[in-house]
């Protein structure tokens, strides 16, 4: 049982403040890696997840990417921090949370892509102008922010 599960037993569905990290992984052709998530069902997003006790956000990002894609990320670059009222969510089970998401960029990675099966149903690189329609809204915002900075 993870940290969040333990907290939920104590507070029920009341709002929590959670910290997470995602990574925009760009390949040599400039494509962005996305994962089709098991939850929310059939929705694409960036690899990443929630911080565990004692982790840094960089460790969270690296752990989550490895778990979800099989890739080891190197030389993470901080892109931005996303937080506030717009980042409030209610899960299907009624759990409420505000998430603070730290977004990183990685162009230096190694390993073979592997779908983990429990959190991902597919992973693939997408051209910059060809992202899936069904994508986590905040992740789409993060990718668009990155692409604007990269073009500037």
TrEMBL record:
Q: Record's family? A: Belongs to the Nudix hydrolase family.
Concerning PROSITE patterns, the annotation shows: NUDIX, NUDIX_BOX
Sorted UniProt keywords: Hydrolase
| InterPro entries documented for this protein | Nudix_hydrolase, NUDIX_hydrolase-like_dom_sf, NUDIX_hydrolase_CS, NUDIX_hydrolase_dom
Q: Name all Nudix hydrolase domain ranges.
A: 15-149
Organism superkingdom: Bacteria
Give one GO term, molecular function aspect. Answer: hydrolase activity
Under SUPFAM superfamilies, the record lists: Nudix (SSF55811)
Name the UniProt record assigns to this protein: NUDIX hydrolase
Q: Which Pfam families match?
A: NUDIX
CDD domains linked: NUDIX_Hydrolase
* Needed cofactors: Mg(2+)
